Amino acid sequence: MLTRVEYIKKTAHRHFAIVDAGMNDFMRPALYGAWHHILPLKQHDIPALAFDVVGPVCESTDFMAKNRVLALMENDLLAIDNTGAYGMSMSSNYNSRPRAAEVLVDRDEVKLIRRRETIAELMQNETLQA
């Protein structure tokens, strides 16, 4: 899974990398603390810090990883390793967030196999009953 670092927040006790992927995109860490490699796609010549990689949903369980030593900057792309079809099958529209696009990587070929949902598609079956 690819995600972008939207914001770096540093406190006296912790550093947070707030990413655009949330617990609705990948539930395994939130549900049972599953551990997945976090791989920055760009290397920086800055000190690595211990980060909690968290999502934008504002739930205490909205995290991808805790206490990972990474050299990160805002707008960095991160790969969360081994999320796969199982991760996608557990994704949801929680908090009115469209599910992510799904891409198949086959050697040197990359194919979009499921496009990202739109907000309009999420709302299309809703009605106002008087």
Please describe what this structure looks like.
The chain is mainly beta. It has a single domain, classed as Beta Barrel (Lyase, Ornithine Decarboxylase, Chain A, domain 1). 12% of the residues lie in helices and 35% in strands. A 6-stranded mixed sheet has the order 3-6-1-2-4-5. The longest helix is centred in the middle third of the chain and has 6 residues, at 84-89. The protein is globular and about 55 Å long. It starts with a strand and ends in a 7-residue tail after the last helix. The mean pLDDT is 91.
Number of domains: 1
Uncertain parts:
none
For the record, what CATH class applies? Mainly Beta
The Rg value, from CA coordinates, equals 16 Å
Based on Cα principal axes, name the global outline: globular
Number of strands: 8
Helix/sheet category = mainly beta
Cα separation of the termini:
42 Å
In which range does the helix fraction lie?
A: 10-25%
Strand content: 35-45%
Judging by the overall fold, what is the CATH architecture? Beta Barrel
The average pLDDT score comes to 91
Please, what is the CATH homologous superfamily? Lyase, Ornithine Decarboxylase, Chain A, domain 1
CATH fold descriptor:
Lyase, Ornithine Decarboxylase, Chain A, domain 1
**Largest beta sheet: what is the strand line-up?**
3-6-1-2-4-5
Number of helices: 3
